[in-house]
């Protein structure tokens, strides 16, 4: 039995296979609509979510399965002091697979270690968000046609933004990928990402605080929200929150065939005037999230189609 708590647990071949399954689901949805009949997905969300939880639920329903769960810690026994380990053991008595989100780094790993059924990490604090990364990879593949030889610009809160950490880890596996890491000094990628991923693999990357200077260099621009809930003080958040705002004027300097991604929710980082630009891929990215999660559920439940 396998869980997914960190993107490093998947081989590149497995990621590529899941992307291929997701593309087949998009092309032939009816082939998959009974695959998880009588299977149940539990969504345990201790932190707010719209896309991740609903896309998991929609994914399971589209596979013919059913869903149960909670969407806030306060409505679960966590409010009474129950540990994640005990909640997971309990849910394992009812469901076949769990998708969870929790504010603490490492909570998904604790859950997986205590689970009798597969656990999928839907975000653990500022650490990791592997299913967003699978979504991002499927989106890059569909928008750009390939995952290798790309310059990826990550812009915004690279310190607390968990999606960025998993994305860098996954994209670093593909040949010829370079990164431009655009953030204020205080929100640079954590040292472990620099040392254990970028430096260890000898990946070419640049750290800068200027979006304007580098927007013309990137093939993919991955915008992120400043993660207010992870800040220790509100004044720092207010000072940093509008560090980068992508506007139509800025997009004039970007490549004609680049794409703009954002895990969403957006606050102020992308002007809504860009939504109609063909390069704005973030709502297509939301759609892709459902299909890749269908592929992941099939894989972890070991369903043969
Ligand atoms: C992201 C998250 O939860 O980390 N959202 C998502 O899952 N699509 C990004 C964010 O909250 O900024």
Write a short abstract of this structure.
The chain has 305 residues and is α/β, with parallel strands linked by helices. Strands 7-6-5-8-9 form a five-stranded parallel β-sheet, covered by helices on one side. Strands 2-1-3-4 form a four-stranded parallel β-sheet, sandwiched between helices. N-carbamoyl-L-aspartate binds next to helix 2 and helix 6.
Tell me what the structure shows.
The structure is a single chain. The protein is globular, with a radius of gyration of 19 Å. Strand 6, helix 7 and strand 7 form a beta-alpha-beta unit. With 305 residues, the protein is of the alpha/beta class. The protein contains eleven helices and nine strands. Bound molecules: N-carbamoyl-L-aspartate. N-carbamoyl-L-aspartate (NCD) binds next to helix 2 and helix 6.
Can you list the strand order of the major beta sheet? 7-6-5-8-9
| Small ligands present | N-carbamoyl-L-aspartate
Query: Which H/E pattern describes the elements?
Result: HEHEHEHEHEHEHEHEHHEH
The residue ranges in which pLDDT falls below 50 over 5 or more consecutive positions are none
Q: Percentage of helical residues?
A: 25-40%
Distance between the termini: 18 Å
Beta-strand portion reads 5-15%
| Tally of individual helices | 11
Sheet with the most strands, sense and barrel status = 5 strands, parallel
Shape descriptor reads globular
How big is the Rg? 19 Å
Mean pLDDT: 97
- Count the beta strands: 9
The helix-and-strand class reads alpha/beta
């Amino acid at each position: 039995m396998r869980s997914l708590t960190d993107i490093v647990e998947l081989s590149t071949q497995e990621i590529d296979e899941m992307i291929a399954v997701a593309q087949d689901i998009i092309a032939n949805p009816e082939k998959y609509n009974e695959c998880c009949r009588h299977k149940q997905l539990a969504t345990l969300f201790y932190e707010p979510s719209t896309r991740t939880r609903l896309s998991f639920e929609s994914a399971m329903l589209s596979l013919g399965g059913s869903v149960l769960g909670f969407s806030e810690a306060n409505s679960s026994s966590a409010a009474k002091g129950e540990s994640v380990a005990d909640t997971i053991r309990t849910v394992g008595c009812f469901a076949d697979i769990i998708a969870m989100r929790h504010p603490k780094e490492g909570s998904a790993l604790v859950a997986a270690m205590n689970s009798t059924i597969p656990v999928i990490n839907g975000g653990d604090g500022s650490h990791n968000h592997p299913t967003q990364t699978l979504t991002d990879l499927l989106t890059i593949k569909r928008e750009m046609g390939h995952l290798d030889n790309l310059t990826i610009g990550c812009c915004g809160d690279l310190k607390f933004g968990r999606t960025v950490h998993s994305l860098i880890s996954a994209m670093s596996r593909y040949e010829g990928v370079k990164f431009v890491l655009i953030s204020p000094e205080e929100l640079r990628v954590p040292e472990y990402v620099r040392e254990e991923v970028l430096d260890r693999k000898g990946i070419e990357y640049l750290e800068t605080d200027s979006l304007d200077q580098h927007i013309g260099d990137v093939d993919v621009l991955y915008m992120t929200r400043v993660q207010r809930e992870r800040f220790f003080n509100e004044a720092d958040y207010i000072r940093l929150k509008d560090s980068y705002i992508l506007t139509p004027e800025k997009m004039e300097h970007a490549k004609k065939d680049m794409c703009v991604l954002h895990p969403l929710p957006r606050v102020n980082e992308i002007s809504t005037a860009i939504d109609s630009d063909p390069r704005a891929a973030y709502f297509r990215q939301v759609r892709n999230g459902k299909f890749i999660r269908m592929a992941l559920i099939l894989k972890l439940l070991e369903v043969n189609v």
